[in-house]
């Protein structure tokens, strides 16, 4: 069996894909952009945010990016739009809107 | 140097396993395959092999353990029959799609119900589309030889698929026959060491069996199908090498007195022995009869079979299983499908015989050849037939 492609793309042919879906390297979940599953998305109002970080705590997809103890922004490549962060926010700093 | 021994089919296969000395054997007992892991566990207890023997709690677990060990890069084998194979069903597909060359001795037995411990082919024929290579053998010698070759076939880089080595329960598994065994060193050299292209262990560990959604599942199935197609060539290559070692010749199927045959039979496993006796008798009477015994059912040698049947006028396809399709049984389906467009007016009836261990006599087989000659003469015949059932 020839060396199969290490990087599985959406266009990989049956001749190049790894047998049985073998994954040859670790830590590649990041390459899977689950953000395109989203139908709703959080909108962050920085002016109302107290940087309590509870949204960062509850996010199941590590999609809220912190920096120096403060919220920096969102990773929309991986945010699936579950809305948990917006539901728990007590300061009106997170809205939940339809993804355009 | 080869040595002559008298062994039952199960003993012969267990001896082959001892000579191969696999990394892992995980098995659960079921008649008539029980003796295979039983004898093998004695070899383990005696220190004659270095294998890890896993006495599991079911056949589902047996195949699961085999899959895990094979995924870890080991050479792995097991044995089962009938409902044991049925209980492995889910895991058979996992082994095949994960491309793990597990070798499984299927000692053919009828499937329940009603419960029956005797031989027919309903177990392995039920698993014919599970993605496993299926090699069938007529007697203890072929079971032994096929088992050794199965290692090389399944582990070939172009194949990487699991292999069922099928032989008839009791008739082959328990009858003691004379056969030639290779020396341990010869088998060791023939099978070599397994080189797994991917492994859960080692310097480059991988993840196996991930969720595979619409973007990629189809490509994996297409690749798996190609591996099965590749197996045909590999089966022949391995057979050629085995012939050099032992002098015993194997192919995708065996042709017996097929030159100039007008009426032929396509058959699987031990009943081929009975049918060969009938062929000899009828040949002595000047009747042009022949026989083809399928060795490789998966992959199915369609083109090769069409070529071998090119000159026959009528061919009876013998199934020791009823496929319950409402029409034909598995081998009959395959042969008729292979001949479609190439049949040139051939007469291709099917016969379901021997279910649940019903005895099949030389008279039964002779009646089938006589049916074929009558069909050639009159052009009239039944396509779907039962042989030996009480009407």
Automatic annotation (TrEMBL), chain A:
<dbReference type="GO" id="GO:0016625">
    <property type="term" value="F:oxidoreductase activity, acting on the aldehyde or oxo group of donors, iron-sulfur protein as acceptor"/>
</dbReference>
<protein>
    <submittedName>
        <fullName>Ferredoxin</fullName>
    </submittedName>
</protein>
<dbReference type="GO" id="GO:0046872">
    <property type="term" value="F:metal ion binding"/>
</dbReference>
<feature type="domain" description="4Fe-4S ferredoxin-type">
    <location>
        <begin position="70"/>
        <end position="99"/>
    </location>
</feature>
<dbReference type="InterPro" id="IPR017900">
    <property type="entry name" value="4Fe4S_Fe_S_CS"/>
</dbReference>
<dbReference type="GO" id="GO:0051539">
    <property type="term" value="F:4 iron, 4 sulfur cluster binding"/>
</dbReference>
<keyword id="KW-0479">Metal-binding</keyword>
<dbReference type="InterPro" id="IPR011898">
    <property type="entry name" value="PorD_KorD"/>
</dbReference>
<keyword id="KW-0411">Iron-sulfur</keyword>
<keyword id="KW-0677">Repeat</keyword>
<keyword id="KW-0408">Iron</keyword>
<keyword id="KW-0004">4Fe-4S</keyword>
<dbReference type="Pfam" id="PF00037">
    <property type="entry name" value="Fer4"/>
</dbReference>
<dbReference type="InterPro" id="IPR017896">
    <property type="entry name" value="4Fe4S_Fe-S-bd"/>
</dbReference>
<feature type="domain" description="4Fe-4S ferredoxin-type">
    <location>
        <begin position="40"/>
        <end position="69"/>
    </location>
</feature>
From TrEMBL, chain B:
<comment type="similarity">
    <text>Belongs to the pyruvate:ferredoxin/flavodoxin oxidoreductase family.</text>
</comment>
<dbReference type="GO" id="GO:0006979">
    <property type="term" value="P:response to oxidative stress"/>
</dbReference>
<dbReference type="InterPro" id="IPR029061">
    <property type="entry name" value="THDP-binding"/>
</dbReference>
<dbReference type="Pfam" id="PF17147">
    <property type="entry name" value="PFOR_II"/>
</dbReference>
<feature type="domain" description="Pyruvate:ferredoxin oxidoreductase core">
    <location>
        <begin position="261"/>
        <end position="365"/>
    </location>
</feature>
<dbReference type="InterPro" id="IPR002880">
    <property type="entry name" value="Pyrv_Fd/Flavodoxin_OxRdtase_N"/>
</dbReference>
<protein>
    <submittedName>
        <fullName>2-ketoisovalerate ferredoxin oxidoreductase subunit alpha</fullName>
    </submittedName>
</protein>
<dbReference type="Pfam" id="PF01855">
    <property type="entry name" value="POR_N"/>
</dbReference>
<keyword id="KW-0560">Oxidoreductase</keyword>
<feature type="domain" description="Pyruvate flavodoxin/ferredoxin oxidoreductase pyrimidine binding">
    <location>
        <begin position="16"/>
        <end position="238"/>
    </location>
</feature>
<dbReference type="InterPro" id="IPR050722">
    <property type="entry name" value="Pyruvate:ferred/Flavod_OxRd"/>
</dbReference>
<dbReference type="GO" id="GO:0016903">
    <property type="term" value="F:oxidoreductase activity, acting on the aldehyde or oxo group of donors"/>
</dbReference>
<dbReference type="InterPro" id="IPR009014">
    <property type="entry name" value="Transketo_C/PFOR_II"/>
</dbReference>
<dbReference type="InterPro" id="IPR033412">
    <property type="entry name" value="PFOR_II"/>
</dbReference>
<dbReference type="GO" id="GO:0019752">
    <property type="term" value="P:carboxylic acid metabolic process"/>
</dbReference>
């Amino acid at each position: 069996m020839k060396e199969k492609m290490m990087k599985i793309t959406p266009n990989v042919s049956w001749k190049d894909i790894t047998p049985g879906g073998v994954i040859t390297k670790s830590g590649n979940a990041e390459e899977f952009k689950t953000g395109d599953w989203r139908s709703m998305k959080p909108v962050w109002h920085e002016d109302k945010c107290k940087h309590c970080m509870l949204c960062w705590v509850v996010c199941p997809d590590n999609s809220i990016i912190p920096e120096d103890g403060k919220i920096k922004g969102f990773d929309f490549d991986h945010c699936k739009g579950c809305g948990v962060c917006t539901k728990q926010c007590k300061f009106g700093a997170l809205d939940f809107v339809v993804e355009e | 140097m080869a040595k002559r021994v008298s062994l039952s089919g199960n003993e012969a296969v267990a001896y082959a396993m001892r000579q191969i000395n696999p990394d892992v054997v995980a098995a659960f007992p079921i008649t008539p395959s029980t003796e295979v892991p039983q004898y093998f566990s004695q070899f383990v207890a005696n220190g004659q092999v270095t294998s890890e023997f896993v006495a599991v709690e079911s056949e589902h677990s047996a195949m699961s353990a085999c899959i895990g060990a094979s995924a870890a890069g080991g050479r792995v084998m097991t044995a089962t029959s009938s409902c044991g194979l049925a209980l492995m069903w889910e895991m058979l597909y996992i082994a095949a799609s994960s491309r793990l060359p597990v070798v499984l001795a299927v000692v053919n037995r009828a499937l329940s119900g009603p419960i029956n411990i005797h031989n027919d082919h309903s177990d392995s024929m039920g698993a014919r589309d599970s993605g496993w290579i299926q090699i069938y053998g007529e007697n203890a010698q072929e079971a032994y030889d096929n088992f050794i070759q199965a290692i090389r076939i399944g582990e070939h880089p172009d194949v990487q698929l699991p292999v069922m080595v099928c032989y008839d329960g009791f008739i082959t598994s328990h009858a003691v026959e004379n056969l030639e065994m290779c020396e341990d060193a010869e088998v060791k050299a023939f099978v070599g060491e397994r080189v797994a292209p991917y492994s859960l262990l080692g310097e480059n560990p991988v993840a196996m069996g991930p969720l595979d959604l619409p973007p990629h599942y189809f490509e994996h199935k297409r690749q798996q199908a190609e591996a099965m197609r590749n197996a045909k060539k590999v089966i022949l290559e391995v057979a050629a090498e085995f012939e050099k070692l032992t002098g015993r010749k194997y192919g995708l199927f065996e042709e017996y007195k097929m030159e100039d045959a007008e009426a032929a039979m396509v058959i699987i496993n031990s009943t081929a022995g009975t049918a060969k006796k009938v062929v000899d008798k009828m040949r002595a009477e000047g009747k042009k009869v022949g026989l083809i015994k399928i060795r490789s059912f998966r992959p199915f040698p369609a083109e090769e079979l069409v070529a071998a049947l090119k000159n026959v006028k009528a061919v009876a396809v013998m199934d020791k299983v009823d496929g319950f399709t409402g029409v034909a049984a598995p081998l009959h389906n395959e042969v008729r499908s292979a001949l479609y467009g190439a049949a040139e007016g051939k007469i291709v009836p099917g016969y379901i015989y021997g279910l649940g261990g019903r005895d099949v006599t030389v008279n039964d087989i002779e009646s089938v050849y006589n049916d074929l000659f009558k069909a050639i003469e009159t052009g009239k015949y039944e396509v779907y037939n039962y042989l030996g059932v009480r009407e």
